[in-house]
Predict the 3D structure of the following.
Amino acid sequence: MGIKYKIIQFNINEFGVNIIELKKEISFKSLGWDKNDIKLSQLRFLITKYINDKKVILQEAQCFLDGRIVPNSIQELISSLSIEDQRKFHAYKPFRKRGISQFMVEYVNKQWEVNHVTLPELTDFAQREDHPLDLRKLIRRFPPMDKTTTQSILLRILIKKCIEMLCECEPQVKLKKIEVTCHQMSLIIDSSIPSVCNSPEGLHQDGSNYIVSALVIDKYNIEGGTSELYCVEKKEIIKSHTLERGEGLFHIDKHSTIWHKVTPIKLKNISLGIGYRNILGFDFNFIS
């Protein structure tokens, strides 16, 4: 494990955490489908079909995402699609299951203390936009991770170890308080679609001081899912690695030259029916 460009590729074995034990404490079975992905896919589809109407689509995008009545302007565009395009528009289905949790980490008595923050039944989440058509600026609502996961001792160890890496990358910043948001995601694929991707927005930044863009907990019957980091106006690739179980990628994000994405996954063996990639992601934001 070494630092370059404030990027650290790590394995949880280095933290004294066993991936098998971690999988026992963090279950992905109870996660609900992220239905935001359906409407975001539909919005992206409409923008590609009606690029001259993108301003109107973006103005009504939040209302459309919130699940209220479809705005008239959006409905008119949907109705104007060809029969084949209407079929494609309505054929989108969720491809990720996810939950979210939040922790406040404070430096007290010369050690880091990790305290869970209770979240509402549905938590508002948005990210900084990287370009005008970046739909991540819209407010999405995610359910909290289950109680067993948020109380995991091993999860707290991981958070503390990531904070230590952060401090190693920023020795001049005397941090005392850091907000940590944890994303639990299961990317799922079956034979009905050729591929799915955990970064449909493409190359991006998340808008946090530091992130773990992915820590792979488990994966099954898939190919792809390669993490790629770029710098120098998003053109020069500086890191490319397909994370295996127990491996993660920690790096600087906001106001840096580092941009990231992950390649799509596809089924390795179609006869097995499904494949998945289960990960944790972390956002670290300086409070004081």
Notes: The first helix runs from residue 19 to 25.
